[in-house]
Amino acid sequence: QSASKTLDKYALFVPKTGVFPKGYEVASLASGVKKNNALDLGIIRNVNKSRKSSAAAVFTTNRFKAAPVQFSRKVLDATSGEGIDAIVVNSGCANAVTGELGLQDAGKVATQVNELIGEKNSTLLMSTGVIGQRLQMDKITGGIQTLFGQNKFSSDFDSWLKLAKSICTTDTFPKLISAKFSLSDGTEYTLVGISKGAGMICPNMA
Amino acid sequence: TLLGFIVTDLPIKSSALQTMLTGAVTRSFNCISVDGDMSTNDTICMLANGAVDTPVIDESSSDFKKVSSQVTEFSKQLAQLVVRDGEGATKFVTVNVKNSAEFKDARTIAETIANSMLVKSALYGQDANWGRILCAIGYSKLGNYESLDESKINVSFIATDNSTPRELKLIANGVPQLDIDESRASEILSLSDLEVLVDLGTGSEDCQFWTCDLSHEYVTINGDYRS
Predict the structure, then answer these.
(1) Residues of chain A positioned with their CB less than 8 A from the CB of B34
(2) Is B1 a catalytic residue?
């Protein structure tokens, strides 16, 4: 019994404020894929136009890579990591072990966002949740349309925290950290990080 | 599944960003385990949009190393939050393997300890069954025994609350300490943060790995995941 004394992990590990990098906006909503109207779709987009953005990624080395992993790898290969301006995350359905149809679904999601931000090959995808089920495309594409159509994007703390919640599955708290740093000439810059995971966790990404 | 992204307003050349991220993940997200299962979806990505008005950072920049180490520390924090939230977890466990001839051996040994169901169950039950730690070290899939010399290995529990004695020696230079202070062991294992220290004494490479205990709740959650 003493071993299972519960820590209030939310109070311990979830921040109440944050500092966020310039030129990014985020949005999230409950598209209906997850039960109980939980947040399950999020988008982070780069709105800075002073120069092209850079992107990098590492992916699972599991032989049966999910559709979003295969798709995102192709995008990074095709662009050499330049000009990536959006990341779409969905939870509740992993779009994994879904074969050619899963890849097509992933492509449709990315194409919709690329068109909405006026770019080509500019969107990465991440999915998590039940394996072996296809994306409920009506809910996902409808949710994306709502986020852009009603311009739900913002850069405030609450929007970033909701984005962190939208990628959770069996997590008991959202994982969001942010901090400011300085370069050697005193120039200030910001890092923000979001992660999720609670089970099926022993990554060996490359 | 592990998903995550790190986002910055620095301008960083994409090839340098990939080097930075890969290096950070090697010491953070690739050094965690909740249950030993590797997902089909694991993805960590990093975006740098260059909104800060400063010269683009590439691998020859004087700030490349500094920014890389900041990204690595940041990634460790994010990775550790995932372990702290491990399904059913009641203990956050740091497995510190140090003084190894090879980093890859230190990582293999740390990961093997971290993935041992028997070690994780004992930590959940606060049972100082340290023989299981040595057993896990013994079956680690090492290419050779250059890093693992039975006569030089030291294994300890480390108190994470600054109480003393901080270190409880379980094996000293390959000799099992059969008369350990069981009440001290129970005190250390009752903490929610635990540290297992393995000093291989064969080199200078270190690996920190993070895991959690294995509880009844883990089985409950995963027994009917799809519903």
Answers:
(1) 197-202
(2) yes
